[in-house]
Automatic annotation (TrEMBL):
GO terms for molecular function: DNA binding. It comes from Kribbella orskensis. Residues 2-59 form the HTH lysR-type domain. Gene3D superfamilies: Periplasmic binding protein-like II, Winged helix-like DNA-binding domain superfamily/Winged helix DNA-binding domain. InterPro entries: LysR_HTH_N (IPR000847), LysR_subst-bd (IPR005119), WH-like_DNA-bd_sf (IPR036388), WH_DNA-bd_sf (IPR036390). Keywords: DNA-binding, Transcription, Transcription regulation. This is DNA-binding transcriptional LysR family regulator. It holds the Pfam family LysR_substrate. Coiled coil: none annotated. The keyword DNA-binding applies. Belongs to the LysR transcriptional regulatory family.
């Protein structure tokens, strides 16, 4: 049976002319892409691509069928959007937020979702960046605000927004006077960090910057910022955060000079030919909401 996935494989491979690149665009690995292409060629009874060193090219049959595949995918997209419009409760926008997204910024993005798509219902989950990317790729989320950098598995992405951070430092280490401090001066305690597996590329960038400014300063793994704040209140750690509302007795907030550890955020969403993709003008509105101070 001819399926939407087979058509996606056909179009992606025609566009990318490379198996690995096409697999990343769709959000799958190369073996199922190759298997899908073989099944599609068996269904249509024609060879669609010529395999060469490092790239593939459309055969005459592939060139003839490609416009039909594009039209079929567009028709499927229109069907999905029309079906969503028939939901008596309105279109549902499933939004994911990384834990590092400040509360006010996450609220602004959710509100922008509701405002941008009239009559929509917005559902929100919070999960680590690596999980959110997988859920958007699988179609379980319509979009997500994630840490940058990250491996996006063929997803589209908006501009990177830099969120300034402050250091939450036990007052036993520095007085709570709000003075800006250089990162290199934050010695004597480890800096709390979340597990690397949650966002490997972003965590590596964070740790590399720490190592550059405070070699040998050390880190301690925490499950979330609340745990980090508790450790800071106990005089056991320093927390670097973009969240302005995070506070506790015995902990002072200090801006970091030159903001060496900004939290980098961006929106990710499925490619436009994916059924649950949002219109480009809606994505633009949501990207602006992510910049809310």
């Amino acid at each position: 049976m001819l399926t939407e996935r087979y058509l996606q494989i056909f179009v992606a491979l025609a566009d990318e002319q490379h198996f690995g690149d096409a697999a990343r665009v769709i959000g799958i690995t190369q073996p199922p892409l190759s298997q899908g292409l073989r099944r599609l060629e068996a269904l249509v009874g024609a060879k669609l691509f010529e395999r060469g060193p490092g790239r593939v090219e459309l055969t005459p049959a592939g060139k003839a069928l490609l416009p039909h595949a594009r039209r079929a995918l567009n028709a499927i997209d229109e069907f999905h959007h029309a079906a969503s419009a028939q939901d008596p409760e309105g279109v549902e926008i499933r939004l994911g937020l990384a834990p590092e997204v400040p509360a006010a910024v996450g609220a602004a993005v959710a509100a922008a979702c509701s405002a941008a798509v009239r009559g929509s219902r917005v559902s929100v989950i919070s999960a680590p960046t690596s999980s959110l990317v997988q859920q958007v790729s699988a179609g379980r989320l319509g979009l997500a605000a994630v840490l940058h950098p990250a491996v996006l598995d063929g997803l589209e992405a908006g501009p990177v927004t830099l969120m300034p951070t402050s250091a939450l430092v036990p007052t036993a280490l520095y007085p709570d006077d709000g003075a800006a401090l250089p990162l290199g001066k934050l010695q004597g305690l480890p800096i709390a960090v979340r597990p690397r597996a949650e966002a490997p590329a972003a965590r590596d960038l964070f740790l590399d910057t720490l190592a550059l400014h405070r070699p040998g300063g050390g880190t301690v793994i925490v499950t979330d910022e609340r745990a980090g704040l508790a450790m800071a209140a106990a005089g056991q750690a320093i927390v670097v955060t973009p969240e302005p509302s995070l506070a506790a007795a015995g902990v002072g907030r200090h801006p970091l000079i030159d903001d060496p550890l900004p939290v980098r955020l961006r929106l990710v969403w499925p490619q436009s030919r994916t059924p649950n993709a949002l219109p480009a003008e809606v994505i633009a509105q949501l990207s602006r909401a992510l910049e809310t101070p």
